[in-house]
Structures are given as C-alpha cells and as structure tokens.
C-alpha cells in the first residue's frame, strides 16, 4: 500500500501547479542529479520575432519573406508565426501545392510551381544548396527557390522571466543543468551563457535528444535524470528520461499524457519547487 504521506505530497505539489502522476515519481524527484531542458518554449518564451532579412543573388527582402511565409502557412512551429507576422499579409492557398514539414529541419513546399525551401543549415545541406554559415545569435531560416539561394531570415526569441532563476536554484542544490536544442550553435551558445547552464548541445534532431538523455543517464550512476520540454516534437524524450516533465499550458496533449510530472504554468522554476516538495514529503513518509 502507498503511505498516506504521499497523498499529502502529491496534494501539496498540485496546489503549487505541479501535477505528479504517482508516488514513485515523488521518490524519483528526491534523487535527481541532472535536469535537462529543451530550449524553445521551455527556457525561452518561444515567441519568435523576425529581426533581420539578409538577401542574396539579387532577390529582395519582400520576396524572401513572401516565399517563406507561403512555405510556412500551415506550420505550427513558432518560427512560422513570426515569418507570417513579418510578411503581414494573408497567403493565397491556391499558390501552395504539396508541403512537407521535416522535423528539426524546416519546410519543403511547392509554391507557384517552384520548389521552395525554408529551414536551417541541415535542410539546405540535405538539398545540396550552397549557403553561408551565419554567426548570428538568432535562429536562422534560409530560403531557396528552385535550387537557387534567396537569403536568410534572422528570428530572435527571449528567455522566460524565471529561466535564469530556474537554473540558479538547481545549481544551488548541486544538480547538473543541461540544455538541448535543435537550434544552431550560436543561438544555443548565447542563451547558455545568459543562463549560466552547465552543458548544452545543439543542432539536435528529436532522436539525438533521446541519445543525449541516455548518455546522461549512464553518466549519472544511479542519480536520476529529469527532462523538461513543451512536447513540440520532444514527447519521445519526455518518455525516455527517468522523470519526464511537460509544460502544461503550452505543451502538446501527447506530451502531457506521456509525462510523469506536468507543470501547469510554463515556469521552468517550478522544477526546483517540485524537488523541494518531494524532499519534504519523503521526510514525512520516512
Ligand atoms: P528546439 O530544439 O529548440 O525546440 P525544434 O526541434 O523545434 O527546436 O527545431 C529545431 C530547428 O529546426 C529550428 O531551430 C529551426 O532551425 C528548424 N525548424 C523546425 N521547424 C521549422 C519550420 N517550420 N520552419 C523553419 N525552420 C524550422
Ligand atoms: Mg522544442
């Protein structure tokens, strides 16, 4: 049978907006040695804003934004909304044929009968299109049309208000902090520095994130590894970690179902509060 104290612990967590799906996860939270965060939507607001458009091969900024906005019309990725906001007009669905959204890469679509790419270095590399490597702090969306490079769009995101505090509180508990992202090296490095995070890994596909979790679990020698994500293409990572934590307000249904712990508000600092509640509960139970 489950000791009564656990019900108290789960109740006390839930009053703080933290849903713990079982007493075993409260126990596991007391043994956390590493907390791994997804970047976009977890540590950052995921509210991207276009900050610059850089042209190439005689194309105009307007043409780059137009083709990118058309390619991104049906995407739910946060970068898609920022491009559509910057374009500022509705798209005409009759011009759009066949859209492929490639996870961790971007979009390949047929617009006006032409093949348009809007995505990162990996996407352009895969499609053999020469493009500059951009040493910028933001997320870069390269745009190409019928194999000709048009230029790139720089999109910036901002840290959540409590992101730095979230990392500080965990470090104060001697817990290792790690950030995983599909984003580029420069965006990752800039955020990692502001956060003071212990380790970060970039340009990762969802399956790479799973591998990193497995490696960190091996390295942690019995200490538990928690992963915190919003579930936009990281549900498999939430499932694999010792403790999968989903952000409830922004997160996807799949992530909330898979997760062991759900944070009802999108505040990364709730992770350290969850650990505090779990430790207090263990003292009562034992
Ligand atoms: P994160 O790991 O930061 O949550 P994602 O895994 O969602 O990021 O995406 C990784 C990268 O893939 C993005 O930074 C972006 O470069 C590219 N990408 C993904 N979806 C799109 C899209 N719809 N349009 C353009 N680029 C995209
Ligand atoms: Mg993500």
Automatic annotation (TrEMBL):
It is found in: Cell membrane. Belongs to the cation transport ATPase (P-type) (TC 3.A.3) family. Type IB subfamily. This is Cadmium, zinc and cobalt-transporting ATPase. The chain holds residues 362 to 647 of 695 of the full protein.
């Amino acid at each position: 049978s489950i000791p009564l104290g656990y019900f108290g612990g789960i109740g006390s967590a839930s009053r703080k907006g933290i849903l713990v799906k079982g007493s075993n996860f409260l126990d596991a939270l007391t043994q956390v040695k590493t907390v791994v965060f997804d970047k976009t939507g977890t540590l950052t607001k995921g509210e991207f804003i276009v900050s610059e458009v850089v042209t190439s091969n005689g194309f105009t900024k307007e043409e780059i934004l137009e083709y990118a906005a058309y390619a991104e019309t049906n995407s739910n990725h946060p970068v898609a909304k920022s491009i559509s906001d910057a374009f500022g007009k509705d798209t005409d669905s009759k011009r759009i044929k066949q859209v492929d959204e490639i996870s961790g890469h971007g979009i390949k679509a047929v617009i006006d009968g032409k093949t348009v790419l809007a995505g990162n270095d990996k996407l352009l590399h895969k499609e053999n299109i020469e493009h500059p490597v951009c040493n910028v702090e933001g997320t870069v969306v390269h745009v190409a049309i019928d194999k000709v490079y048009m230029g790139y769009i720089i999109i910036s995101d901002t840290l959540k208000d409590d992101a730095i505090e979230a990392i500080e509180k965990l470090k104060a508990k001697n817990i290792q902090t790690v950030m995983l992202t599909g984003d580029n090296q420069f965006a990752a490095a800039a955020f990692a520095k502001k956060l003071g995070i212990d380790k970060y890994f970039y340009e990762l596909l969802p399956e790479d994130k799973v591998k990193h979790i497995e490696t960190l679990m091996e390295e942690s020698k019995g200490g538990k590894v928690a992963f915190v994500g919003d579930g936009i293409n990281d549900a498999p990572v939430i499932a694999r970690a010792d403790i999968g934590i989903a952000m409830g307000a922004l997160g996807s249904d799949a992530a909330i179902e898979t997760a062991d712990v759900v944070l009802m508000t999108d505040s990364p600092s709730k992770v350290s509060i969850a650990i505090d509640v779990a430790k207090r509960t263990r003292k009562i139970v034992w």
